[in-house]
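User: Can you recover a sequence for this backbone? Please restate the input before giving your answer.

Assistant: Of course. Working from this structure:
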């Protein structure tokens, strides 16, 4: 799973994806729109599913950040009641690594004051690039270069602070014509031909 914004569980249900089937979650950064789907997701894994190990990969401090989020979400019940049933492993993303049987590469992107992890994940001989949030700077080109599929944010038209505009997204696509782009994180405006109702796209 790539990031975990809310509402995560309803979308997974509509797509027929079971929370227990997720082996690894890649987090690009800790902003709320990328992490606040995790508390109900974790609750489901603890009390609805049979406990099963899951790995979280993300920036430095991922263990402290997520434990703080879960403790804030579930209060005094988190440590004595829920944590013993939660089989999680926290991994600080390396430049190159392997998790859940897949090799990955981390590319640091420009976003906000602390930056954001982008990931290149190998599926056999194919590469999926995922940006999370990013400005349209040189590291983003490095992230998507040569990827078969790139999931990249395109927040809105015009000047968008610390994110990528539609215009910059179009220019990025033009610079990498062999990569299939799926643009997400659209916060405003309407794009002709956009996927609706969580369509599953064959890539």
């Amino acid at each position: 799973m790539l990031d975990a914004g809310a509402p995560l569980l309803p979308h997974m249900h509509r797509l027929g994806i079971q929370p227990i089937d997720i082996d690894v979650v890649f987090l690009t950064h800790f902003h709320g729109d990328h992490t606040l789907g995790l508390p109900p997701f974790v609750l489901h894994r603890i009390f609805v599913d049979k406990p099963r190990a899951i790995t979280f990969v993300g920036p430095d401090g991922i263990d402290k950040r997520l434990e703080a989020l879960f403790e804030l979400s579930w209060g005094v019940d988190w440590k004595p009641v829920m944590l013993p049933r939660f089989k999680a492993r926290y991994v600080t993303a390396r430049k190159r690594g392997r998790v859940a049987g897949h090799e990955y590469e981390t590319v640091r992107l420009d976003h906000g004051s602390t930056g954001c992890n982008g990931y290149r994940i190998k599926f056999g001989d194919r590469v999926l690039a995922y940006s999370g949030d990013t400005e349209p700077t040189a590291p983003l080109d490095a992230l998507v270069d040569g990827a078969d599929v790139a999931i990249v944010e395109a927040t809105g038209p015009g000047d968008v602070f610390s994110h990528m505009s539609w215009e910059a997204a179009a220019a990025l696509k033009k610079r990498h014509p062999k990569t299939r782009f799926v643009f997400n994180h659209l916060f405003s405006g309407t794009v002709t031909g956009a996927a609706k109702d969580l369509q599953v796209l064959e890539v």
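That completes the design. The longest helix spans residues 62-74.
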